[in-house]
Amino acid sequence: MIPLILGGYGQVALENLALREQLAIFQRSVRRPKIRPTDRLFWVCLRKVWKEWKSALVIVRPETVLDWQRKRFRRYWSRLSQHKNPGRPRTHADIRKLVKTMAEANVGWGARRIHGELLKLGIEVSERTVSRLMPKRSTAPSQTWRAFLDNHVRDLVSIDFFTVPTARLRVLFVFIVLSHERRRVIHFNITEHPTAAWTAQQIVEAFPEDQTPRYLVRDRDGTYGEYFQHRVQGMGIREVRTAPRSPWQNPYAERVIGSIRRECLSHMIVLHDKHLRRILKGYFRYYHESRTHLSLDKDAPEAREIQANKLERNESFRSGRWADFIIATNAGWLSHYMSGGRFVPDNPALLQSSS
Fold first, then answer.
1. Whole-model pTM?
2. Relative to the CA of 290, which of 53, 80, 110, 247 has its CA 20 to 30 Å away?
């Protein structure tokens, strides 16, 4: 500063002093000022052309300027050494999703098996890529609950009772045996006084010796007494009892009973046991042959074919004969139909008009 004053540059010296004082005040008020990339570039260039650049540093340290230069050098050469197309091309999202789905649905399949299936589908991908895309498992492969139930559904049946009041104020007990595989009611019977011996006899009639199921799901009703248990055990059937007061643990049988009440028995008065037997026979014929089920992909327990002739189907809609056809096919067990909306349990006139 003194050489500048003595050399005739007093104005420059005073201006330099004023700027340094302002920088000192700024440094006291702001601990770490924000520095832009252009500021860094200025100091890096100034270091190359001015030897005394360190004496002018106030808000940064010399080590910081040197570090900026090193980082700039690394970024420059990193950009030069990068490949224009790094690595192999990315696998399509649909292929990644397909590999994951196949691995989750078939827990016993490895990368080789899935790779072979993909090749048969016309998807060209390496086996190494398939193994990399497969989900990582922390435990040994195990089948899903859905697969487990599907594997055992043929060996599962449910039984249950439900009551029906008659016009003479008597109570009839209806016993049903339901197969889980196709939701078929394979046996039913009616009695006024259910006993363990009578119930065991129904199981014998429902299952010949070569068709006995492995598991039988039932509740804890007192009707299933000692005689019933010994008889079932002698047939090689294992009983699965639900928890007390837990009807939701026998859902298939409960849903069938609910359907019988909603679609059939709630629309009529039962006179006696023979009348009820005739009603249920007609309803179960409709239930097995025509009624669609969500659990069967909207098919009937006995597979129902789709009408092939489109022209004939459209003509039925236009002429109004479609409603009559449905009622005739289902033996009148639809509670409402298109013409009139009234319940018809048995209407021979409709059967004659549709034939």
1. 0.54
2. 247
